[in-house]
Design brief:
The complex is a heterodimer of chains A (240) and B (403).
Chain A (H helix, E strand, L loop, with lengths): L1 E10 L2 E11 L4 E5 L6 H9 L4 E10 L2 E2 L5 H7 L1 E4 L6 E5 H9 L5 H7 L9 E2 L5 H15 L3 E5 L7 H14 L11 E5 L13 E6 L2 E6 L1 H11 L2 H7 L1
Parallel strand pairs in A: 3-10, 3-11, 6-9, 9-10
Antiparallel strand pairs in A: 1-2, 1-4, 4-5, 7-8, 11-12
Chain B lengths: L2 H8 L34 H9 L11 E6 L2 E7 L4 E5 H7 L17 H8 L5 E5 L9 E7 L5 E10 L4 E10 L5 E12 L4 E9 L3 E12 L4 E8 L5 E4 L2 E4 L5 E10 L4 E10 L5 E10 L3 E10 L5 E10 L4 E10 L5 E9 L3 H9 L4 H12 L9 H18 L1
Parallel strand pairs in B: 1-5, 4-6, 5-7, 6-8, 7-9, 8-10, 9-11, 10-12, 10-13, 11-14, 12-15, 13-15, 14-16, 15-17, 16-18, 17-19, 18-20
Antiparallel strand pairs in B: 1-2, 3-4
The chains are: A alpha/beta (240), B alpha/beta (403).
The complex binds adenosine-5'-diphosphate and magnesium ion.
Adenosine-5'-diphosphate binds next to helix 1 of chain A.
Chain lengths: 240, 403
């Protein structure tokens, strides 16, 4: 579904990603580990096409099409959806409206909001005064409405309180069609710094993004074990 | 000669402190009288459409009374609700001797050349009154319409909400589609008695060469409430106004909301001023200004004259392209113990916001339209539903031009 080949990305004139290769197949869930500042968020935003994240080399291929030059909304139309770490406040634009936009008017905002315990947020300006956890849930709400084929999630568990973490896990499982075992189509690329999300989610593959490059890849639980035991410092040693 | 005529004659050349000085004699002062219309539906369809853009329903559906002045003639008036009056001010002055006690009392006749000119020229305007305890079930509508090119229209309005009454008013001011240039000078005096509440929503829709000089003051007594909403989204050559409220009774409250849009070659100098002159008075001024090439001076002035008053002023400006927005918020505390604050921000649309909406599926231009519409958010006005609908309609009707 998604193939990233030798991707180089510059932010404000500085190279942040230095040759990334990633492959995500239909129905697959991939976890992106890595220390803070390693470039995980930049990778997601570059995949989505945000203008501050300039691709200087390499290719992003989605469903067989090179999408490097497509505007953000065209990528969304083709089936990529993102949950942002720090989405902006858009004054006067209500959460309800965002659900309508994301679903092209198809979703039942109330029903979806109910699933995420966000009913009272529907008539509030999007992201205005939302706590960290509320932002995560509101982003998931919009993703539910959008129902993308490839879901990009930036640290979906961070800032979410204990009460809601299981809820967030449940919604992510739903987004990724984890209830389907044979004909699963939805794929995901999920950033986690701590790995907590793996307590709620099965994943197929793990990557460690370190200093703008993929350090290692493999079974996500094994990678997490390793990170928990040795910390991300071990990546430095590994790289040598 | 009456005293106000004397005063007026003295100051006919007195320049206003703000706004380009206008030579009023360049505009035509007389015009033929228009005939009274029993039914507004008999007006030209084009004029009715223009009226609808400023919230005036020719069918009078959903309204409890109507006043329409076209050029220099009152062409329709009448209230459908007991205890509500809406009529030609000249008739009201003949009918009620006591009205003299209100006339030119809130707005002094010698304020500037414009107020003086209104007094010294033939004029009409509306008189609206709610008797004590009467509440409008549906809003009243008042329309000031200019149908003749180059005309000067002078009006003097008096609005009285008697004790414990509640008045919802929509005022729509517009020029006919073929009119490019004209002058509109309107004096409005509001008297809000104890525990009365007035919601006043004014929508302007002028043309490229029209000059507008409203002069408005409201006096609010104990526990009275004055809510003023002002919408001006269409081109206008020069508009200058600084409506003022005097909160003279304990616990009185005023709130001004305005949404202004300056097109290329439009010049809008608009402010709101509130004197907090009694205990526990409160005021709020909210302005949303957008420029796509024109100039907006967004003023605000809160004057705290005694302790324990509370007021806030918020002005946000959005420059879409090549425009100028100059926010001038002023806080004037005249004693210790006032609580006044302001917040002003002027900028362009954040790329980050556009891209966020694009990630949800909107095209770049749809995203911008959504952000601008959100910016003008009428929800902040806290209006009764019918008024919100009128403003929504006004915004929608000009969206095609804006985007
Ligand atoms: N918009 C931006 N402007 C400037 N620098 C940025 C921006 N976004 C990210 N960076 C820089 O890029 C590097 C990677 O950041 P980021 O992608 O957020 O890493 P991670 O998500 O792995 O913590 C950091 O050094 C960060 O400061
Ligand atoms: Mg990050």
């Amino acid at each position: 579904m998604l193939t990233v080949r030798d991707l180089h990305v510059e932010v404000a004139g500085r190279e942040i990603l230095k040759g990334i290769d990633i492959e995500i197949r239909e129905g697959e869930t991939c976890i992106l580990f890595g220390p803070n500042g390693g470039g995980k968020t930049s990778l997601l935003l570059a995949l989505m096409g945000f203008s501050n994240y300039q691709v200087t080399k390499g290719e992003i291929v989605f469903k067989g099409e090179v999408i490097n030059d497509l505007p953000i909304n065209e990528r969304a139309k083709r089936g990529i959806g993102i949950s942002m770490q720090r989405p902006p406040v858009v004054r006067g634009v209500k959460t309800r409206q965002m659900v309508e936009i994301a679903s092209d008017g198809q979703a039942d905002a109330k029903e979806l909001a109910h699933q995420l315990d966000l009913i009272e947020f529907l008539d509030r300006d999007i992201n205005l005064g939302f706590s960290g956890g509320e932002i995560k849930r509101s982003e998931l709400l919009q993703l539910l409405a959008q129902s993308p084929d490839l879901v990009l999630l930036d640290e979906p568990e961070s800032g979410v309180d204990l009460e809601n973490i299981a809820l967030v896990g449940k919604v992510i499982n739903k987004l990724l069609e984890k209830y389907l075992h044979r004909k699963r189509k939805k794929a995901g690329l999920i950033i986690t710094h701590t790995g907590h999300i793996l307590d709620y989610l099965e994943a197929d593959k793990g990557y460690v993004l370190f200093d703008g490059q993929i350090g290692c890849q493999g079974n996500p639980r094994e990678i997490l074990e390793d990170i928990r035991r040795r910390g991300y410092e071990a990546c430095t040693i590994c790289r040598r | 000669m009456e005293r106000s005529d004397e005063l007026a004659s003295v100051v006919l050349s007195k320049q206003a402190p703000l706004g380009e000085d206008i030579n009023v004699s360049e505009y035509c002062e007389t015009t033929e009288e228009r005939t009274y219309q029993e039914e507004l539906s008999s007006l030209d369809e084009e004029d009715r459409l223009r009226m609808r853009e400023v919230g005036i329903e020719a069918s009078e559906e959903g309204r409890s009374g109507t006043f329409v002045q076209m050029d220099h003639s009152v062409i329709h008036e009448g209230s459908h609700q007991e205890g509500l009056e809406i009529m030609d001010i000249t008739l009201a002055l003949e009918k009620y001797d006591w009205l003299r006690d209100y006339f030119w009392k809130a707005v002094p006749v010698d304020t500037d050349k414009y107020t003086a000119t209104v007094q010294s020229r033939p004029h009409h305007g509306y008189f609206i009154r709610a008797l004590p305890g009467v509440e409008t079930t549906l809003p009243l509508q008042a329309c000031l319409f200019i149908g003749r090119e180059g005309l000067a229209q002078y009006v003097h309005n008096v609005i009285i909400a008697e004790e414990g009454s509640k008045l919802d008013i929509i005022t729509g001011c517009a020029t006919a589609r073929h009119v490019k240039g004209s002058l509109h000078v309107g004096v409005s005096e509001f008297y809000i008695k104890p525990r009365a509440k007035v919601s006043f929503t004014m929508i302007h829709s002028w043309a490229e060469e029209v000059v507008v000089r409203p002069r408005t003051t409201s006096v609010v007594e104990e526990e009275g409430v004055f809510l003023s909403n002002y919408i001006c989204l269409k081109p206008v050559k020069s508009l200058q106004m600084y409506p003022t409220t005097k909160l003279v009774g304990q616990g009185a409250m005023a709130r001004y909301n305005s949404i202004l849009y300056a097109h290329t070659n439009s010049y809008l100098d608009v402010g709101s001023r509130v004197y907090l002159s009694a205990h526990c008075t409160r005021a709020e001024i909210l302005a949303r200004t957008i420029s796509s090439g024109g100039k907006i001076i967004a003023r605000g002035h809160l004057i705290g004259e005694i302790p324990e008053v509370k007021a806030h002023l918020e002005c946000r400006g959005l420059i879409l392209k090549d425009g100028v927005i100059h926010a001038i918020p002023e806080l004037e505390g005249r004693v210790a113990g006032v609580d006044m604050s302001h917040e002003a921000a002027v900028g362009k649309i954040a790329q980050e916001e556009i891209e966020y909406l694009m990630a949800k599926g909107l095209s770049g231009s749809e995203a911008i339209a959504t952000i601008v519409r959100g910016f003008m958010d009428v929800g902040i006005m806290g209006l009764p539903a019918p008024l919100t609908q009128e403003i929504d309609k006004a915004i929608k009707s000009c969206e095609r031009e804006i985007f």
